[in-house]
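User: I'm writing a short methods note and want a consistent example. For tRNA-specific 2-thiouridylase MnmA, I'll paste the sequence; you return only the structure tokens, no commentary, since I'll be parsing the reply automatically.
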Amino acid sequence: MVAAMSGGVDSAVAAARAVEAGHEVTGIHLALSRNPQSYRSGARGCCTIEDSNDARRAADVIGIPFYVWDLSDRFHQDVVVDFMDTYAAGQTPNPCLRCNEKIKFAAVLDRALALGFDAVATGHYARLEPTADGGVELHRAADHGKDQSYVLGVLDDRQLRHSLFPLGDTPKEQVRREAAARGLLVADKPDSHDICFVADGDSTGWLREKLGDRAPNQGGAIVDEAGEVLGEHQGTYGFTIGQRKGLRLGKPAADGKPRFVLDIEPVSGTVTVGPRERLAVERIRADRPRWCGAPLAPASTSEVTVQLRAHGDEHRGVVHVDAAGETVEIELIDPAFGIAPGQAAVLYQGSRVVGSATITATERITA
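Assistant:
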């Protein structure tokens, strides 16, 4: 078994538990940039030189072989370029979810299986449960505050069958205590929250530099719903649906209430703002569904709950799968606010993750 070791506390304890469970474990760390200094600085538990060294030391303490796998080219194309392209289209991507889909449970798993390993273990907080027919289901972690099932909602049945999440039933603070008891120096290492490939955390500045002369970098007008110009901006990549801060509007709203980004039009460079109530969404259309285990049948209708952000609330809804099984439409019983194309809609039934799809359009509640 391969244990993906990021250099953080979670993956280190997951590797140690896999060894204790009787698996023959080899630790690997992913080199995601040919120039690590171009990615996030500081020891935060992802992909810096410090993180690689932390992972190696943890593997030494656990007593397992350790290797670094260079996936920088694949990561750049499948995650970094996808991030840029999605923002350039006026949408809002989730790079961590894309990394799980394309890197950790595709490129890594494929290489591991080709080398004769049977599974990949990670420090994600989620649970796998066997089914009566010999399959496997993905479920929320016992510690809902640390649950990461949302970003794993892109995994298919084959990937889940070759995955192991040893921390799924354990609260985070217990994991830290266990790491300290095992002598792992990462026991108190801070969690990683920022986008790993944006070195200083300034994603707007990073996009401005990387997008160069592409259309969204040319700036444009910030307008209200009537089309009145309220301000100017330097590029639509600096905005996302539902954003309130950083709008820098020259004219306050007549009612004195804050305004939020309602729409982003990357071709003209127009950003439309308005009151929060105009962000309420009652219907979502999404494509590229990926099913975690048994899929929902084409032309079927099912009751679900829907999570629309990595740490967002669940919303009750009904999902309709089209006849070809290629798109889904979700009617929200509980309206959601600030939902943007490009985000993932992850579907649940109870604690079980049914699957996910990428949002292409939303329909707002009309007054």
